[in-house]
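Hi R.,

Here are the chain sequences for the assembly we discussed:
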Amino acid sequence: MINVSVPIDRLAPYRDKIESSLASALAEFSEPNCLYEPVHYLFEAGGKRVRPVLTMLACEAVGGNPDHAVHAAIAVELLHNFTLVHDDIMDSSAKRRGRDTVHVKWNTSTAILAGDVMMGMAMRLLLRSAAHAERPLDVVDAFSTGLIDVCDGQALDMEFMLRNDVLPEEYFMMIERKTARLLEMSVAIGASIGNATREQRSALQTFAREIGIAFQMQDDYLDAFGSETFGKVRGGDIMEGKRTWLMIETCARVESDINALDEHRRIVETFRSGEPLSADNVNTVISMMKQYGVDTDATTVVEQRTMIAFSQLHTLAPSDARDGLETLARSLMGRTH
Amino acid sequence: MINVSVPIDRLAPYRDKIESSLASALAEFSEPNCLYEPVHYLFEAGGKRVRPVLTMLACEAVGGNPDHAVHAAIAVELLHNFTLVHDDIMDSSAKRRGRDTVHVKWNTSTAILAGDVMMGMAMRLLLRSAAHAERPLDVVDAFSTGLIDVCDGQALDMEFMLRNDVLPEEYFMMIERKTARLLEMSVAIGASIGNATREQRSALQTFAREIGIAFQMQDDYLDAFGSETFGKVRGGDIMEGKRTWLMIETCARVESDINALDEHRRIVETFRSGEPLSADNVNTVISMMKQYGVDTDATTVVEQRTMIAFSQLHTLAPSDARDGLETLARSLMGRTH
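And here is the predicted structure of the full complex:
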């Protein structure tokens, strides 16, 4: 785990700029009301705006004007929220950021269509920033790749829930697409608008991808080992039968241990069968994870991935924006402190 | 109605090119199988490929190389099919082109995600063609506008089903967005790839938009007055309570007629209330439409819109591609013959 607690105020000007530009951009879309009301509702709920800040910082870190990237940054946030609206339908999630999800507050048709139109809005806004780039089609290309990858990742996630033989490396492939590639896309777009060299863009992409994987691994770790102060029930992933690296790896280690306890074997069988685990099982699963060292191995993966990410940043010339990227990554990873 | 029956063979080379390029493009997308299998299934069912042919012809008609537009043409077809997959969920349609719809054959989540990824695939393919254009961002801009408009149109269509006071001009606004703008987008993209002048592009857009409106009006007309040889039940729209121009206009004329028959008034009240009309009512509704001259007025609108469309074509220099656009429009409008 990252143990450094840093102030994040230096990012406030970027967030402010994003919020005001987002409000202006959304105001361009109001009719038909039945379509755009859910879109406005979504953004009223706020959010950390991690991805759009990444876009602006990446642009600035390669020597570009971050204001040129602000519409692309909003496009990235629209894409992110599009995935949330559609994922919430697929996952039958009733709440998001403490409020009713769109398909619950309105209906499934409205949520499908609101997501779809957000993609169109995102493309239109993206073009305003792309026009500043020397190679504008690179900007749009990164966006389309992000969209394809995030759909691939969501499809894998849904497929894995129906499979009992998901491998650890498949888990990494899934979170890379579902979580990390949107962060990678966010910096790739900013870098292209800032006319980055190939090396700069590549370094930023590796940085964002590795932070994304580290973040998702840590999120999974905290589900089992974190405190319960983040509005999540401890062991929620375990009870939902999620195919996290922690669970997959723990099951594999139990199965290859000839001295494994019967109780542990039964839990692994239940998990493999796709049956839900009860709240009573959560503490046993957590002690299994500890016994087989999966908890410390997960921590090691998080640390390694984070180190790779930061090492990429150091290939860029020093700048406030580069420091901002590091600040943002640390605040993402250090949220337990 | 258009009474001219013309051979459409001259368009076969464009369709062949589109089919072979579509097959190659789809082959680039195969994993995860659970996501792309439904996409491949959709395109196996074939289709008239009207929109991609429009894109290639528009490019050629302004002096461009139609081969440069082929990937954009496929993108347009992907966008069209994306709308069909999502609309079928919203409309709870079980069949499409004689086969199970994606959400019926798989499930709603798969259909949502397959539609979403098709949008990403479309964007990626679009860029290959956009790279040939002098102003590549115009190509992407037309695409994003098409996506936004078609979502707006679908939202209006759903909203109108819940309203009892839809006006005739609102109907035109809805079909313009839901049906006509995708045709308009198809030619706008082709024109931009062919480096059209502003006047050429504008003429092509008006041509496609007017043909789109004429086509939708004719489709509505044929639902009530056509033969039953097209796989549709006569009066299907009437029984579904669709807010077509024919129904809206008929109701308005009955309501403003102080001598209207009680039977007619009762039908109008039922329609206004949103209650379904029975199969027994269909013939009465059709005779109402005739009595109030709505049938001949609809025919007049179709003819006027079609004439406006063709007059736009004549502002372009004569070419095989211009003739091809006329052929395509005639085959679209003349399908009863």
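Chain B touches chain A at residues 31-32, 34-35, 82, 86, 89-90, 108-109, 112-113, 115-117, 119-121, 123-124, 127, 130-131, 136-137, 140-141, 143-145, 147-148, 151-152, 154-156, 158-159 (CB under 8 Å). The mean pLDDT of chain B is 92.

Let me know if anything looks off.

Best,
T.
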